[in-house]
Specification:
The structure holds two protein chains of two kinds. Chain A is an alpha/beta fold. Chain A is built from seven helices and 15 strands. Chain B is of the alpha/beta class. In chain B, helix 5 runs parallel beside helix 8. Classes of the chains: A alpha/beta, B alpha/beta. Chain B: Heterodimer of an alpha and a beta subunit.
Chain lengths: 270, 317
């Protein structure tokens, strides 16, 4: 039997990319009214669930803690994670967090992870490869730096055995096998697995699972360290890009390939 | 006094176009230095001078490549301190962004990724939410760390070449502590085509190609472009995930994007809608891709694409 694992999975509440998304307010922040669990975080949650299921699941003492930071609505990302199979949830919520950039976000999340490790250490922090809103991919690496954890990011495969974590990272020109000892931070790509959907039993069972709400005071972080005050970047302006408009659309009548080349020639693209 | 420091990591025997772009942007900010890692070939050293780098920093340690990202960030932090630079420029690759991320924490510096332009005062331009907004952002810290996307500026050599001074930077002894070790590396086969992220022309295939990327590749080669794919095509296993354009693949912004047999769902649009000119070929007139195409053809790709390829070859003689 493998060692039991205490895994924290970062889950983000993001605007649904299927619809128009907006930037609003004096600080040019993203409107989060119509938000869902970031699709890319489902791969991290699935990876965590597979790891604990191979170790006897929650009955054997394994934990998958879904952690989300954000306004009241962000608890929905935690609830969805509990329905899918996370064993408990944590929601960091504080008005002072609004407008946090990656530096401030990673500072707050690092404090939560230290807080969660106070009784028993966290073995693994799992994240998606990026959020589907900000898309910067900065937070996993910054969290690893702040927590002095080995980072194994953009993992397309993951294996944890005997206190050692091995992952494959696919780059543009080469694939790397990377290795570190636990505790570690791993971000996973959408190539690593096929995330499961919550089933009826999971949806019912989630209601009995514990969600802990934490404030900044609970984790010992001052209001000025996060939010716009604690951020090191500022978005000065945001301009909606004029929507692309459809150009010439033709139906092939046997010569569309030629017409295409004529178009490219006229645009000086040949 | 150095104003801008460009990080260049293992370029091999020649600098990539994206590195030349970083050097061009750096020079617009002031005196430019390079933090270099890897073997420095003569041609590369000459190119650094031609692009105006007055100092080339090199690490005291040779084993930075044995670990993932972390020790490179430690080296770069030491190079920033040695140079006194106020702006650090990196490429916008996975490694580049993560080195930027960790550097930001080490220096308490603001990090801005996916930058497409930098003003003389350090204001960074980027496009967000899948290209639906253009934003300007600025670091409020003493040092700004920017990762810049390819094709952001036209590379321009310095008015007069310089001979850079080489300075060794001491890599902190604990740089690789708590770093993941790279235990194996396998090179991917080179396609011989331009890099997808940097190409001026991209021809992408989707579900409609039904497993046959031959016509896509032939058109890409006739146009001197890169091959891309939708997630449907990579998920089907017709082509490697490396070629995926979209939210979870590559974001491309070429002069010309030719979308073939791709419906144009949001996941795909996110990766290509800032392309200059979009051409779409699809047999379904209702495909959302036609809403954003500059030139659209409703038709059978297996007839239209080969005909276009032949015509291009004929014109190019």
């Amino acid at each position: 039997m493998e060692e039991t694992l205490k895994i924290v999975v970062l889950v983000k509440h993001v605007p649904d990319a299927q619809f128009d998304r907006h930037i609003t307010g004096a600080n040019n922040t993203t409107d989060r009214d119509e938000s869902i669990l970031s699709e890319l975080d489902e791969y991290a949650l699935e990876a965590a669930l597979q790891l604990i299921e191979a170790r006897g699941g929650s009955k054997a003492g394994n934990q998958v803690i879904a952690l989300s930071m954000g306004p009241a609505g962000a608890v929905n990302a935690v609830k969805k994670s509990l329905q899918i199979g996370a064993t408990e949830g944590v929601h960091l919520s504080d008005d002072a967090l609004a407008g946090s950039d990656a530096a401030a976000t990673s500072l707050a999340l690092a404090a939560v992870i230290r807080h969660l490790g106070a009784d028993a250490p966290v073995d693994l922090v799992l994240t998606g490869m990026a959020s589907t809103d900000g898309e910067t991919s900065l937070v996993p690496a910054q969290l690893a730096e702040r927590l002095s954890l080995p980072q194994l990011t953009f993992a397309s495969s993951l294996d944890v055995t005997g206190g050692k974590v091995v992952a494959r990272r696919d780059g543009d020109t080469h694939s790397d096998t990377v290795e570190a000892s636990l505790p570690a931070l791993v971000s996973v790509t959408d190539q690593i697995n096929e995330p499961r959907y919550p089933n009826f039993k999971g949806i019912l069972g989630a209601k009995k699972k514990k969600i802990t709400t934490l404030s900044l005071a609970d984790i010992g972080v001052g209001a000025s360290e996060v939010g716009t005050a604690g951020s090191l970047t500022v978005v000065e302006s945001a301009q909606a890009r004029p929507p692309r408009t459809a150009g010439t659309i033709i139906t092939d009548e046997g010569d569309a390939g030629i017409k295409l080349v004529e178009f490219l020639a006229a645009q000086k693209l040949l | 006094m150095t104003q801008a420091l460009v990080f260049i990591d293992n370029p091999g025997p020649a600098l990539k176009k994206s590195s030349l772009e970083l050097l061009t942007i750096a020079r617009s900010l002031g005196d430019t230095a390079v933090a270099f890692n890897g073997e420095l070939h003569d041609d590369v050293a000459a190119a650094l001078g031609a692009y105006g780098a007055t100092t080339v920093y090199r690490p005291s340690a040779a084993d930075l490549d044995d670990y993932l990202v972390a020790p490179k960030a430690a080296y770069l932090a030491a190079a920033v301190a040695a140079s006194g630079a106020g702006t650090v420029l990196l490429e916008n690759s996975a490694d580049g962004k993560e080195i930027a991320a960790r550097l930001g924490i080490k220096l308490n510096a603001g990090v801005i990724t996916d930058v497409v332009g930098v003003d003389a005062d350090g204001t960074a331009h980027k496009s967000v939410l899948a290209g639906s907004y253009n934003t300007t952002a600025k670091a409020t810290s003493a040092v700004a760390v920017l990762s810049v996307k390819p094709n952001s500026v036209d590379p321009e050599a310095a008015p007069a070449p310089v001979t850079p001074e080489t300075v060794t930077v001491e890599v902190p002894a604990d740089a690789a502590a708590n770093a993941a070790r790279i235990t194996a590396r396998s090179a991917k086969p080179a396609s011989g085509r331009p890099d997808l992220g940097e190409a001026r022309v991209v021809v992408s295939g989707g579900r409609g190609v039904d497993g046959n990327f031959g016509p896509i590749e032939e058109l890409a080669d006739a146009l001197g472009g890169a091959v891309g794919a939708s997630r449907a095509a990579t998920d089907a296993g017709w082509i490697s995930h490396d070629y995926q354009v979209g939210q979870t693949g590559k974001t491309v912004s070429p002069q010309l994007y030719v979308s073939v047999g791709i419906s144009g769902a949001i996941q795909q649009k996110a990766g290509m809608q800032t392309s200059k000119v979009i051409v779409a070929i699809n047999k379904d007139a209702e495909s959302p891709i036609f809403e954003i195409a500059d030139f659209g053809i409703i038709g059978d790709l297996f007839k239209v694409v080969p005909q276009a390829t032949e015509e291009i070859k004929k014109r190019k003689g």
